[in-house]
């Protein structure tokens, strides 16, 4: 009998140990975002929120065509999970640069999502020749004071390109009358949107019959705004520390030619690659600067990269 009791006690203790080990493995840890994540690979229909708006302008979701278009973009952008997670990560790095410039011009904060759909917050290159986060064409860039040549292309300069985008949007708003139409004009041009409004006898983006790209444009912006403001609602799980962060830099003034940017970078304890990552507007291994123009080159603070020996 004692042997049986001891055996039962042994197996009871063993069971408790197994349960304890399992509990430890299943317990919330930093590795699983402080909460247990549930692997759920089911696909669900989404409920389109009733109060969606862009820059204070409400979407007419009672219109079944508008509802279906909005539903499409919410579905596409929710279930393209890898791309969505990258957008969240990049936003932590680049929104803090974009947001204050929009505010400076009085452009609604919602327009940062226009940059998201234009480029995915990368220095993208379009087949039509647009460049950078804001996908600025060469003519538009030059008309707004950007230097664009083989040596320097300031469409890749995020701060300067954001200033250009703001100026364009303000002109479009003044011409077309609403922020929604101004955003659409960023894709199709002021003249293009104005012409279609006149041809179709309407005054609202949501009443226009447009090509596929421009017709989806506003819905994509609003979908990304909704998803990026409500990540958990749409199944995105991450911590603040999972987001990419802006690396502090200081500016070095240059008003002469730099014949070798590799040697220039080494003076500041970084290599050529790091220099170009922070200054993608420098397009060659040298800076000609025949006009003796004053350039400000961003140098990352030394704590963020290993120094060159």
Automatic annotation (TrEMBL):
Highest taxon, organism lineage: Bacteria
Which stretches make up the Transglycosylase SLT domain? 107-204
The UniProt family comment states: Belongs to the transglycosylase Slt family.
What protein is this chain from?
Murein transglycosylase
Please spell out the taxonomic lineage of the organism that makes this protein.
Bacteria, Pseudomonadati, Bacteroidota, Flavobacteriia, Flavobacteriales
């Amino acid at each position: 009998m004692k042997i049986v009791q001891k055996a039962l006690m042994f197996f009871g203790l063993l069971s408790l140990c197994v349960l304890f080990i399992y509990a430890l493995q299943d317990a919330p840890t930093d590795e699983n975002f402080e909460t247990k994540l549930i692997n759920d690979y089911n696909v669900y229909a989404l409920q389109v929120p009733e109060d969606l708006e862009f820059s204070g302008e409400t979407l007419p979701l009672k219109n079944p065509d508008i509802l279906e278009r909005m539903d499409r973009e919410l579905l596409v952008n929710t279930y393209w999970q890898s791309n969505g997670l990258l957008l969240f990560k990049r936003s932590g790095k680049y929104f803090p640069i974009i947001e204050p410039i929009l505010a400076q011009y009085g452009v609604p904060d919602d327009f940062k999502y226009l940059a998201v759909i234009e480029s995915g917050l990368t220095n993208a290159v379009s087949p039509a020749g647009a460049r950078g986060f804001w996908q600025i064409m060469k003519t538009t860039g030059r008309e707004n004071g950007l230097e664009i040549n083989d040596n320097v292309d300031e469409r890749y300069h995020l701060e300067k390109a954001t200033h250009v985008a703001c100026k364009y949007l303000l002109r479009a708003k003044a011409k077309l009358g609403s922020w929604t139409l101004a955003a659409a004009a960023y894709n199709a041009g002021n003249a293009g949107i104005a012409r279609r409004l006149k041809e179709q006898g309407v005054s609202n983006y949501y009443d226009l019959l447009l090509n596929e790209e421009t017709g989806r444009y506003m819905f994509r912006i609003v979908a990304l705004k909704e998803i990026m403001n409500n990540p958990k609602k749409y199944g995105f799980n991450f911590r603040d520390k999972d987001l990419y962060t802006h690396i502090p830099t200081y500016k070095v003034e240059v008003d002469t030619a730099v014949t070798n940017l590799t040697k220039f970078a080494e003076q500041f304890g970084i290599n050529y690659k790091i220099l170009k990552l922070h200054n993608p507007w420098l397009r060659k291994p040298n800076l000609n600067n025949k006009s003796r123009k004053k350039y400000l080159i961003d140098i990352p603070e030394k704590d963020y990269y290993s120094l060159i020996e």
